[in-house]
Amino acid sequence: MSDVVLVRSLLLAIPLAFLATRAMPRRLPPAARLVLGVGAGWLAALALVLLVPVGIMAYLVSFAIVGSIYAVIALGLNVQWGYTGLFNIGIAAFFAVGAFTSALFTTTPPTGAAAAFTQQAFGLGAPFLVGVLAAGVAAGVLAAVVGGPTLRLRDDYLAIATIGIAELVRLIFQNERWLANGPQPFRGIPQPLSCLVRDAGCPYLPAPLMELFAPLAPRDYTYVYLAITALFVIVTFLVLERAIRSPWGRLLRAVREEEDAAAMNGKDVARAKLQAFVVGAVIMGIGGALYAHYMVAIDYSHFDPLYATFIIWVMLMLGGSGNNRGAIIGAFVIWGVWTGAAFAVDALRPVLAAISPELPARGPYLRLMLIALLLIFILLFRPKGLIGEERFVSRHTGEREA
Amino acid sequence: MSQVVSTRMRLEERVKRVLGSRGALIALLALLIVAMWLLAAAQGIPGQRLLSLLVRGVMLGGILALGAIGLSLIFGVLRIPNFAHGDMMTAGAYLALLALSFLPLGAPLGPFSFGYELLVALVVAMPLVGLLGYTVDRLVFRRLRAQRSPPVIMAMAALGSAFLVRSLIYLFWGADFVFYYTGRARPAIELFAGIRVRPDQLFILGLALAMIVLVYLLLERTKMGKAMRATADNPELARVTGIDTESVIRWTWLIGGGLAGAGGIMYGLDAQLRPEMGWWLLLPLFAAVILGTIGNAYGALVGALVIGIVWQVSTAFLNPAYGPGVAFVILILVLLFRPQGIFGRPGGS
Q1: Which residues contact B8 (CB under 8 A, 6 or more apart)?
Q2: Rounded to the nearest 5°, which phi and psi values hold at A298?
Q3: In this complex, do A175 and B319 lie within 8 Å of one another by their Cβ atoms?
Q4: Shortest Cα distance from B317 to chain A (angstroms)?
């Protein structure tokens, strides 16, 4: 077994070990679950790296990265819609603000000849985690500004206002050259821990750790980034699972189910809604940052209503709103359907060409049709999604009645 | 002590009531337009250009009104925030393009850039869009109503339908922009006092006004119109008094969809046809509807004219791309001060 296989499998083991640990039977003691889960996850990772051809594996890894980023954003939407019933159809706004904020925080302003081609308001050259933090804060502030006047009104007003903010944010990033290079792509967003795969190495990591990652070549970077995004999904998931089981989580569900009853019990409904809206937006902003550092170059067109709002709604509705596992599963399933449909449309090319010579080039829009139909079918026939909401999230009520 | 607190409360209450009054909202909007005008004048933009923009704004308001009236009726009568309304406008524009491809190309009518065939296409496309809306209602919204789904689920279904309609437009016509008449010159003529507009734009304004008069007659003079207004006003009461809900639903979609189709065609005639055009109009449409009070057709007209004028005049000193953003600012102002809109009852939503 070569060293590079070992390192790749270790990176891949992070998400797989988490999945395996969660899948272990509840009867086992926690320590045993952890040990068995980590072992099984690592073995699975090793099997994948050894048995699956390198090219296919590279494809699967980048698929999983984008799936994880969507999973983070779907988790954010779940706080807003799934828990609290807030209809935000401007996800793109928080996604974009997060992406551009992190990009501005982590890049350095261009100098010399490059300055003629790239403009940016500022560039702090800050580390990745600072960028992610700033992305979350910026998206959260935006949510507080939008939510303030609209959350106390009818549900559908929030929807309209969020469409507005998404359009406005997109227009700003499209037209304001000074801010983030206007309609041109904003390039050169640093990849976190990319030093692991370069010869120079990371100066801030201890030598033995650097030794471990030495076999990685630059093309293995996606494994590193998958480990990073997987960690973000895992942490977000665990924090939200904890939160929904807390009194705060129960308050949000009470606001969703019966706003007046919650208010009559002395709960500050407006405050709870604003908190949920801001927390969801912070998570979406973090998702945006993860996206920016994966893409390296971003521009306004990445944040159009289809890719950055609509598809995420379908993910959450399919997986099951109100359920964090559902949000993650939905993200991967819909991303799989979306990318898989691309292959299907490709295979259908001759058929499409037989219908009309222009149709093959427009084949990709069949996917849009598919996703839109899927959403309508879910709403009509399975509104609770693949896995519905858990009825009892409190350990005090759940055991007795379940 | 408590005396002081209660006086202050009353004062706050009073300030709030004044700020939320109809007069205050109208004054605020007037102030906004005057402020924009002054801002433009301060930048040395000639008055003639501003007047031209004002006229163009009224015309754009007419187009927006065609969409906003239907959106407001569907919102008020059927309780559906129809996020597919913009895409229904797009569908109208493209259905007219389809109809044109079957019609012989005639000579331009007088000073206009289009021939009689566009009028035929208009007459063909309008009811088709109404039918499209009603079909979606039969297939989707009717079931959701039967399941007693909340308005938010209706909104989500509307969003799904919007993307479905747009995917069909992409499939049939592609993503590039097209014109009804490629390569036909559309010179502007001088109206009076140096105000320059294109003849087409005058036609658009005239047609929009004619349609609005028709809607007025329909709502005020026919039994169906009365039933629709009654349903918008108080759906439970309307049902109890024996109004035929099913036919109200049908006519609301046919009228709202037909008007949206006409609006889309007019917008396409003024600019060009793009699959995303309706989506871009959605925000100004909702702003107009909320400004003019949901369910109130005349309010939608007033709201659309205000939005159209502010949008156009703002281009004097602002990047024209921000037009929808200006509509958004008005929307937020209305939501802050008077969420029930100009014609809403106090306390209502």
Answers
A1: none
A2: -130, 155
A3: yes
A4: 15
Instruction: With CB atoms and an 8 Å threshold, state whether A155 touches B83.
Output: no
Query: According to CATH, where is 1.10.3470 located in chain A?
Result: 56-303
Which of B 54-113 lie inside 8 A of A, CB atoms? 81, 83
Instruction: Name chain A contacts of B175, Cβ cutoff 8 Å.
Output: 362
What SS3 state is found at B317?
coil
In chain B, what residues touch A376 (CB-CB under 8 Å)? Answer: 140, 157, 160-161, 164
Q: How far apart are CA A184 and CA A231, in angstroms?
A: 31
Per-residue pLDDT of chain B in tens (349 residues, 90 and over written 9)? 455 555 666 777 777 777 778 888 888 888 888 888 888 888 877 777 888 888 889 999 999 999 999 999 999 888 899 999 999 999 999 999 999 999 888 788 878 888 889 999 999 999 999 999 999 999 999 999 888 888 888 999 999 999 999 999 999 998 889 898 887 777 777 777 777 788 888 898 899 889 888 988 988 889 888 888 888 878 778 878 888 888 889 999 999 999 999 999 999 998 889 999 999 999 999 999 999 988 888 899 999 999 999 999 888 888 888 888 888 888 888 888 888 888 877 554 4
Q: Which of chain B's residues have a Cβ under 8 Å away from the Cβ of A365?
A: 167, 170-171
Question: What's the rounded Cα separation, in Å, for the pair B74 and A74?
Answer: 30
> Which tens digits make up the pLDDT trace of B145-178?
888 888 888 999 999 999 999 999 999 998 889 8
Is it true that domain A56-303 has CATH number 1.10.20?
no
Under an 8 A CB cutoff, do B324 and A310 touch? Answer: no
Which residue has tokens 């109009």?
B281
What are the helix (H) ranges across A107-154?
A: 128-150
- pTM, two decimals, is 0.91
Q: How far apart are CA A307 and CA A301, in angstroms?
A: 9
Task: Give B160→chain A minimum CA distance, Å.
Answer: 5
Chain B residue numbers touching A379 (CB-CB < 8 A): 140, 144, 149, 153, 156-157, 160
Domains by residue range for chain B, with CATH: 54-337 (1.10.3470)
Inform me whether the C-beta atom of residue B122 falls under 8 Å from chain A C-beta atoms: no
* Helix or strand holding residue B190 (H, E): strand B189-190
